Amino acid sequence: MNRKEITIRTEKQFSPLNDSLKDFVKGKKGSGIVHVFTTHTTCAIKIIEGETLLLADINNFLDTLIPKDGRYMHDRIEIRDVPTNERTNAHSHLRQLFLPTSETIPVQDGKLLLGKWQTVYLVELDPIRDRKVIFSYIGE
Predict the structure, then answer these.
(1) Which of 33, 54, 73, 133 is the most exposed place for a label (fewest CB within 10 A)?
(2) Could you give phi then psi for residue 80, rounded to 5 degrees?
(3) pLDDT at 127
(4) CB hemisphere CA count around 92 (13 angstroms)
């Protein structure tokens, strides 16, 4: 198994990973799979269409389903055993419940077998920060 860890600074909500994944599987022979995983609980890995208005719709859907200004117990810093400057991000954790922390993509002869419109994204659910993403390749 081959493994690579990358760090992505999430400047926006949707960070495409296809180019990094293509570089990672380039030159692999035969059939295999690449697994993409994030080590965080307030972001996700998701295969979706990268059309700008669809990405806006997804963001609006998440805002409607789980508003940032909801009344969440996790945001009651005063009753938690955490530093007083801890960020309030219950909405980010709750949104992540509906999105995966990983995706697996088939690979054939060094090429990702994604559909024409499929893009693998790191989906940021919290403010801008550095995120770790792990690629693992298993092949013949």
Answers:
(1) 73
(2) -100, 160
(3) 86
(4) 16
Q: Which two tokens stand for residue 113?
A: 């077998």
DSSP string, the chain: -EEEEEEEE-SSSEEE-HHHHHHHHTT--SEEEEEEEE--SSEEEEEEE--HHHHHHHHHHHHHHS-TT---GGG-GGGSSS-TT----HHHHHHHTTS-SEEEEEEETTEE---TTEEEEEEE-SSS-EEEEEEEEEE-
Per CATH, the homologous superfamily of domain 2-50+93-139 is YjbQ-like (2.60.120.460)
Q: What is the mean pLDDT of each run of 10 residues along the chain (140 residues)?
A: 96 96 97 98 97 97 96 94 92 97 98 98 95 97
Structure tokens at 99: 């999105």
pTM of the model: 0.94
Number of residues that this document lists for the chain: 140
